[in-house]
Amino acid sequence: MRVALVDCHDGDLRPGEGERVGGLRELAASYVVPGPAGVAIRDRLRVSHTDAAVLAEVGMFLGSLAAGDLAERSREGVAHDAASWAVRKRELTGRSSARWAGSITKATHDQWALARRGQAARMVWLRGQIAAIEARLARPLGAKASKGEGLARD
């Protein structure tokens, strides 16, 4: 008696009935996966002109706080620590609320970290470009390049 191995949904192979595919494994019969259980609702806020004006003012105020915090964080550079984060949060709490201050400092931290990762990736790319140029400059004039060295043939 031959037992077929079936690729299960969790990545394991288990004995089962299925169809032979390419001599590698047996696949279980297909089935319909139920949709997501959560509910997502998207809607626009319908506010009065007065409420819209208030929301715009609040947005501008919080945006100015966030811009100032990002400027302060950028001035700190890589010498940033939990104590300086706490100082920035305390300063923002005096001008808004503890909840908004925490949210702003977290968003600032994330934005600064993303910028640093992008900067590091750009530096890696630039170093690769410099290495390619140096390799081309190291070749004698008129020499044919090879694809193995990553240089196009003339």
What does this structure look like?
- By secondary structure, the protein is an alpha+beta fold.
- The protein has a domain at 56-138.
- It is 54% helix and 8% strand.
- The protein has 3 helices and 4 strands; from the N terminus they run ββββααα.
- Strands 2-1-4-3 form a 4-stranded mixed beta sheet, with no helix packed on it.
- The protein is flat and about 75 Å long.
- 5% of the residues are buried.
- This is Transposase.
- It comes from Streptomyces vastus.
**C-alpha Rg, in Å?**
29 Å
Category by helix and strand content: alpha+beta
Distance between the termini: 64 Å
Helices, by number, come to: 3
Count of β-strands? 4
Instruction: Give the % helix.
Output: 40-55%
Strand order of the largest sheet: 2-1-4-3
Beta-strand residue percentage: 5-15%
Uncertain residue segments: none
Protein name: Transposase
Organism: Streptomyces vastus
Key features of this structure:
single chain, 154 residues, alpha+beta, four-stranded mixed β-sheet, 3 helices, 4 strands, 8% strand, flat
Short description:
This is Transposase. The protein has 154 residues and is an alpha+beta fold.
Q: How are the elements arranged and paired?
A:
Blueprint lengths: L4 E3 L5 E3 L3 E3 L3 E3 L21 H28 L5 H14 L2 H41 L16
Parallel strand pairs: 1-4
Antiparallel strand pairs: 1-2, 3-4
Helix pairs in contact: 1-2, 1-3, 2-3
